[in-house]
């Protein structure tokens, strides 16, 4: 059995070698990356796992941004048949830890020095009570705004850096008969736009107080009213049939020149690239107006399982996930950037390189923040309660003041 | 001994099913009731905390919407499907040519999984892509059909797709009923010169009471459990305007890690079902017994 | 097929023809309503992704291509494996056939007891079973998972069969009970006088009469079980996932590129067995019904 590993420290290698002597590492992996580029990305991990003598059993469950996978996970845990490794992210990791079902992977993490290569705020998500309990695979940036380059040039518009500039540009586009904002009216997409607006209008500190710490004062502040006002303004910039539209159809509107902008995470880039569009030439990527960086980090958590072979599988998996090679290949396929900051970005496109640079600078400035809309900032119940209000406001004629009041009530009721 | 066995054999045949239902339906309802009194989050816990989950539930505007939708959707879905099913069955019973093909066309929606037919419906009903766009393209510029994106009307699009899926099966049930009515009686009535619509309303339809029971049970079961339909068609939107109790419960239990809240909503749903179904069952079965 | 003679109802033949035409027009309009989504799915599955991305979603395909169908059947990724729906079909068949047969048989026996062998409390038990039809499946997921774990069948196909049988009993019993209730009690009485026992009467009198209701029950159960996603996704593990879970894996991807043509083709492929049951059984349905109407 081949036990060598190009990136592990010597200590780690001997640790694994000891486990391998018992049986080959095994892992049943529950994940929700099932189609196209996503599936190819996971396949990279599986191949490396195999090359190191492991047996990988695939347990894919897609749907609802992982909802279906989480349903399956609960059933599996309750039936005493937990999968070895599970795609989990954000505070859900800590929630599962509190149920006492997660395994400790600190041995691998410390041997490999994860703490030195991950941005602090991202490392924080991977720890439970001081021990390492999950391994990050990528960083998606959420606060992107995508634009059709041709339309912007034709109308003499630069990428907006403030929401006022954005509004001015949108008015101009509307007058020219172009839909300013391509948007899909699904709750999570409404929430995605909302959080970028809060970040842009309130700034990183306000974002943190309101959507991470759930500070009542921030939630009911005038700044929050202003954020809802901007949402109302944006509502005027989307076309009439936006309800229920999939995000990728909105992306297609930007590509086809029907619409000028879309606010969406960097997975939208995959659609542009799949259609043969070139970043910088056909489409432009920029961060949404304002400072800061909202991240959405995918990770794998290891569940408490019996058997040396499975435990060896968990250690090997954790080691591989954080390996430089995997982090690079995976993210090239997926459109995101490596979670490790020391991976060479050869071959990544200009949007990804911007993303990596911004991640480094915002990490230092303290404005590298978790995305609430993608389940990184809050526990499910609170995040869901906020989304309910945001989407109800966006899809009705509710006043911003009422929305703010509802927001505070909903957050209190979700505790 | 054999005589005793002979006398009790019916009970023994029914017993395993009875025990299974007792455990897997009523036992689980009791379990849910218990959990609804706890602070369960990600996984069920069993320390009773009182009625906090019910208080949270009734304070939630989204739950209000979900319950309202259940009544609108449930009533329309059941009535329209029954009416349409019965009507098509009667039409098909008129010695129609190509009945086999038509019947299959009406029936097939039940065979398709909503995971994807939802997408097709979403496109058809979307004003920018579907019917509205097509008819506008024909030159009727003022034509409007934008229920899908109107929070006040979106629930009716769920009814349209729901009826599409279920009415064919109801049609089949009714057709089965129509065909098993004694032909002699009908012939006799025709000989007496009773008009066709009277034959249906006075003789045939009343004799189909058990079919109505089956259809009602099937439809109300589908209405209560309508979950895939909403998820695939509207995702609960615009906003949460088309949320139903089943989707609310699922969201709480599985995407939000709020199992206690989900359990309390399940209990309320069950009470609603109980209030509607039990009187109906009682009257139906009572009538049969006499 | 000729019209039934209506000796007394002397409507003029002209208005009769008009009515007849009207009837056909109405039926065809309904047929259009029912066919619309299938039309959208079929046309989309025959388009190239390029055409979907640029064109109208519900127009006819410009160039027909069957690539999407090939991909859906044997090439689409449902996770790491990119073998399409094919491997999952077998799981679904292994699961659906026993589950349908067992639940139909139990339903027939239960219905027979409730309709013809009434004992004290039989109606109450029947009502309890019916009420069981209404329990939302989301409610039973977690306790059921625990039970399956305790029974040692978590994640297996027998476990899934068990779940489907349990929650199918209510409906199958309902269907058979409503059918058997229309059979005169004298039949059982006469048979008993002849010395036939409980099972003998069921086997040689009731079962032969049951074809139409067996067809209805099988259609219902097969549709429910084949199309089930919630149980399939919760109580399976790698290797036992049914076809709906695979379909969902192909169709649902949050951050991947969406291939609508493959999605639609996959959906139609996944539905083929149920469609087949409807088309084939629909025929027996009518034959059975004719047989049923001569009964009694």
TrEMBL record, chain A:
InterPro entries xrefs: Bact_solute-bd_prot1, SBP
Q: Which Gene3D superfamilies match?
A: Periplasmic binding protein-like II (3.40.190.10)
Q: Which PANTHER family match?
A: ARABINOSE-BINDING PROTEIN-RELATED, BINDING PROTEIN COMPONENT OF ABC SUGAR TRANSPORTER-RELATED
Organism, as annotated: Parasulfitobacter algicola
For this protein, the record's Pfam families field holds: SBP_bac_1
Q: Which domain of life is it from?
A: Bacteria
Signal peptide stretch:
1-23
Q: Where in the cell is it found?
A: Periplasm
Q: Which family does it belong to?
A: Belongs to the bacterial solute-binding protein 1 family.
What this chain does, per the entry, is described as: Part of a binding-protein-dependent transport system for a sugar.
Please give the name of this protein. Probable sugar-binding periplasmic protein
Q: Which key words tag this protein in UniProt?
A: Signal, Transport
Q: What is its main location?
A: periplasm
Automatic annotation (TrEMBL), chain B:
Q: Can the keyword Transmembrane helix be found in this entry's annotation? A: yes
Q: Where are the transmembrane segments?
A: 12-34, 70-92, 104-124, 153-178, 199-224, 259-282
What positions belong to coiled-coil segments? none
CDD domains assigned to the protein according to its UniProt record, in alphabetical order: TM_PBP2
Record domain ABC transmembrane type-1: where: 67-280
Q: How does it sit in the membrane?
A: Multi-pass membrane protein
Q: Which Pfam families match?
A: BPD_transp_1
Localized where? Cell membrane
- Transport: is it a keyword of this entry? yes
For this UniProt record, give its keywords in alphabetical order, as a comma-separated list: Cell membrane, Membrane, Transmembrane, Transmembrane helix, Transport
Query: Which family is it part of?
Result: Belongs to the binding-protein-dependent transport system permease family.
Alphabetized PANTHER family for the sequence: ABC TRANSPORTER PERMEASE PROTEIN
- What is this protein's name? Sugar ABC transporter permease
UniProtKB/TrEMBL annotation, chain C:
Q: Where is the ABC transmembrane type-1 domain?
A: 89-281
Enumerate the InterPro entries for this protein. MetI-like, MetI-like_sf
Q: Which family does it belong to?
A: Belongs to the binding-protein-dependent transport system permease family.
The protein's topology relative to the membrane is: Multi-pass membrane protein
Indicate yes or no for the key word Transport. Answer: yes
Q: State the UniProt keywords alphabetically.
A: Membrane, Transmembrane, Transmembrane helix, Transport
The protein here is known as Carbohydrate ABC transporter permease
Source domain of life is Bacteria
Q: Which organism is it from?
A: Parasulfitobacter algicola
Report the locations given in the UniProt record. Cell membrane
Where is the organism placed in the taxonomic lineage, from the top? Bacteria, Pseudomonadati, Pseudomonadota, Alphaproteobacteria, Rhodobacterales
Q: Give me the segments passing through the membrane.
A: 21-42, 95-115, 122-145, 157-180, 201-222, 264-286
Tell me the Gene3D superfamilies matching this sequence: MetI-like
């Amino acid at each position: 059995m081949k036990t060598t590993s190009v990136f592990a420290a010597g200590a780690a290698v001997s640790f694994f070698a000891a486990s391998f002597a018992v049986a080959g590492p095994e892992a049943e992996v529950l994940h929700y990356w099932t189609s196209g580029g996503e599936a190819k990305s996971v396949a990279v991990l599986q191949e490396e796992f195999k090359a190191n003598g492991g047996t990988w059993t695939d347990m894919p469950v897609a749907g609802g941004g992982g909802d279906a996978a989480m349903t399956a996970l609960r059933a599996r845990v309750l039936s005493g048949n937990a999968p070895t490794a599970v795609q989990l992210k954000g505070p859900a990791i800590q929630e599962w830890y509190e149920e006492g079902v997660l395994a400790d992977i600190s041995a691998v993490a410390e041997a490999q020095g994860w703490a030195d290569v991950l941005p602090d705020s991202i490392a924080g998500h991977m720890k439970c009570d001081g021990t390492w309990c999950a391994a990050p695979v990528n960083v998606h940036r959420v606060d992107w705004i995508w634009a059709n380059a041709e339309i912007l040039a034709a109308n003499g518009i630069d990428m907006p850096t403030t929401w006022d500039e954005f509004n001015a540009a949108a008015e101009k586009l509307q007058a020219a008969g172009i839909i300013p904002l391509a948007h899909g009216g699904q709750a999570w997409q409404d929430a995605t736009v909302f959080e970028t607006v809060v970040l842009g209008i309130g700034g990183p500190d306000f974002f943190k107080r309101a959507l991470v710490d759930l500070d009542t004062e921030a939630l009911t502040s005038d700044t929050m009213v202003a954020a809802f006002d901007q949402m109302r303004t944006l509502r005027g910039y989307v076309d009439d049939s936006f309800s229920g539209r999939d995000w990728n159809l909105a992306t297609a509107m930007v590509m086809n020149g029907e619409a000028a902008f879309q606010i969406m995470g960097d997975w939208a880039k995959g659609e542009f690239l799949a259609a043969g569009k070139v970043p910088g030439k056909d489409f432009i990527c920029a961060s949404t107006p304002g400072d800061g960086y909202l991240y959405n980090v995918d990770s794998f958590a290891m569940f408490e399982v019996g058997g040396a072979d499975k435990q060896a599988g968990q250690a090997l998996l954790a080691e591989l996930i954080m390996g430089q090679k995997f982090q690079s290949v995976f993210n090239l396929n997926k459109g995101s950037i490596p979670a490790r900051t020391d991976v060479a970005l050869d071959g990544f496109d200009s949007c990804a390189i911007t993303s990596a640079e911004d991640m480094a600078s915002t990490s230092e400035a303290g404005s590298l923040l978790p995305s609430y809309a993608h389940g990184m900032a809050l526990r499910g119940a609170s995040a869901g309660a906020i989304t309910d209000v945001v989407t109800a406001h966006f899809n009705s004629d509710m006043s911003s003041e009422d929305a703010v009041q509802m927001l505070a009530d909903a957050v209190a009721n979700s505790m | 001994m054999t005589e005793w066995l002979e006398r009790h054999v019916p009970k023994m045949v029914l017993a395993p099913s009875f025990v299974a239902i007792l455990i897997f339906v009523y036992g689980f309802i009791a379990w849910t009731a218990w959990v609804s009194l706890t602070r369960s989050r990600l996984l069920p816990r069993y320390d009773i905390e009182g009625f906090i989950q019910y208080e949270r539930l009734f304070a939630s505007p989204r739950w209000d919407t979900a319950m309202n939708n259940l009544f609108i959707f449930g009533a329309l879905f059941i009535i329209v499907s029954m009416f349409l099913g019965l009507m098509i069955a009667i039409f098909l019973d008129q010695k129609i040519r190509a009945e086999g093909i038509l019947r299959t066309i009406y029936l097939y929606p039940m065979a398709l999984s909503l995971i994807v037919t939802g997408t097709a419906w979403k496109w058809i009903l979307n004003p920018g892509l579907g019917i509205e766009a097509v008819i506008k393209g024909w030159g009727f510029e003022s034509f409007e059909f934008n229920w899908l994106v109107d929070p006040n009307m979106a629930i009716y699009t769920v009814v349209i797709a729901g009826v599409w899926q279920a009415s064919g099966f109801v049609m089949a049930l009714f057709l089965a009923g129509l065909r098993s009515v004694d032909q002699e009686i009908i012939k006799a009535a025709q000989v007496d010169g009773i008009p066709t619509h009277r034959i249906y309303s006075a003789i045939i339809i009343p004799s189909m009471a058990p079919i109505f029971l089956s259809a009602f049970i099937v439809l109300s079961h589908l209405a209560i459990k309508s979950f895939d339909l909403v998820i695939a068609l509207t995702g609960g939107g615009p906003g949460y305007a088309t949320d139903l109790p089943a989707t609310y419960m699922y969201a709480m239990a599985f995407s939000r890690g709020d199992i206690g809240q989900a359990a309390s909503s399940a209990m309320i749903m069950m009470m609603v079902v109980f209030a509607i179904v039990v009187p109906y069952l009682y009257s139906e079965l009572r009538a049969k017994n006499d | 097929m000729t019209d039934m003679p209506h000796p007394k109802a002397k409507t003029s033949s002209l208005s009769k023809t008009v009515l007849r035409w009207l009837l056909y027009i109405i039926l065809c309009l309904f047929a259009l309503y029912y066919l619309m989504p299938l039309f959208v799915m079929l046309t989309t599955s025959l388009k190239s992704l390029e055409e979907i991305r640029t064109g109208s979603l519900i127009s006819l395909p410009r160039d027909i291509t069957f690539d999407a169908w090939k991909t859906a059947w044997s090439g689409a990724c449902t996770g790491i494996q990119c073998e399409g729906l094919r491997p999952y079909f077998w799981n679904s068949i292994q699961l659906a056939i026993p589950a349908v047969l067992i639940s139909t048989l139990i339903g027939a026996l239960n219905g027979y007891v409730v309709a013809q062998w009434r004992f004290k409390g039989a109606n109450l038990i029947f009502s309890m079973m019916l009420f069981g039809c209404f329990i939302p499946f989301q409610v039973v997921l977690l306790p059921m998972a625990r039970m399956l774990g305790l029974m040692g069948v978590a994640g297996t196909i027998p476990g899934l069969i068990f779940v489907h049988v349990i929650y199918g009993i209510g409906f199958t019993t309902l269907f058979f009970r409503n059918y058997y209730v229309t059979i005169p009690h004298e039949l059982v009485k006469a048979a008993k006088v002849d010395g036939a026992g409980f099972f003998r009467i069921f086997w040689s009198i009731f079962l032969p009469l049951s074809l139409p209701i067996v067809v209805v029950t099988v259609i219902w159960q097969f549709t429910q079980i084949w199309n089930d996603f919630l149980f399939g996704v919760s109580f399976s593990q790698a290797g036992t996932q049914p076809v709906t879970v695979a379909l969902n894996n192909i169709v649902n991807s949050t951050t991947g590129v969406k291939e609508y043509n493959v999605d639609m083709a996959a959906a139609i492929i996944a539905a083929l067995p149920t469609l087949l049951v409807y088309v084939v059984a629909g025929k027996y349905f009518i034959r059975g019904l004719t047989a049923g109407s001569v009964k009694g």
